[in-house]
Design a protein that fits this description.
Layout lengths: L8 H25 L6 H11 L5 E3 H7 L4 H13 L3 E5 L7 E5 L1 H21 L6 H24 L1
Antiparallel strand pairs: 1-3, 2-3
């Protein structure tokens, strides 16, 4: 058996800084959204639906886009349906398929909440870096995201 290829001290610091930044940023953004009645996961779903043609997506595509299991997304959509933000529609050409559809109330909610949320993202994330660092971060994360998305599609 091959010995583990341990992280160097610098790699370990970088990895732990990444984990801490991700968790703290998610927590802060989620906390700031709570006053709107939305979670960060709700917001992500509303954004995906608002940017989709006819403001709807197949549930399977929405699960993939939000990196959630089908069952977890289904429970979340049920909660969002109860709040009047989304509805489900049967897929006409696939009886097993279902669409999540943004309601008018969901559209109004994302329109109302988005400016403050974007300001929070800017304040807590973008404004903490120089433009060069933002560019570098995009260059760093793009191949990682591509690699991990490819692995997801294999399953």
């Amino acid at each position: 058996m091959e010995a583990p290829h341990w992280l160097t001290p610098q790699e370990q610091r970088a990895w732990r800084a990444h984990l801490a930044a991700h968790r703290l940023l998610f927590h802060q953004l989620d906390r700031e959204l709570q006053g709107t009645g939305l979670s960060l996961n709700d917001y992500e779903i509303l954004v995906n639906l608002s940017e989709s043609p006819d403001r709807r997506m197949r549930m399977s595509e929405l699960a993939d886009a939000t990196i959630q299991s089908r069952s977890r997304l289904s429970h979340q959509i049920s909660r969002m349906e109860a709040a009047g933000l989304v509805t489900r529609q049967d897929c006409e050409d696939d009886r097993r398929g279902t669409f999540a559809v943004l309601t008018d109330q969901g559209w109004e909610t994302i329109q109302r909440v988005a400016p403050d949320h974007v300001a929070s993202v800017r304040r807590h994330f973008i404004d903490q870096m120089t433009p060069e660092q933002v560019s570098a971060l995009e260059q760093i994360y793009t191949p990682i995201v591509d690699h991990l998305q490819a692995l997801r599609s294999i399953r």
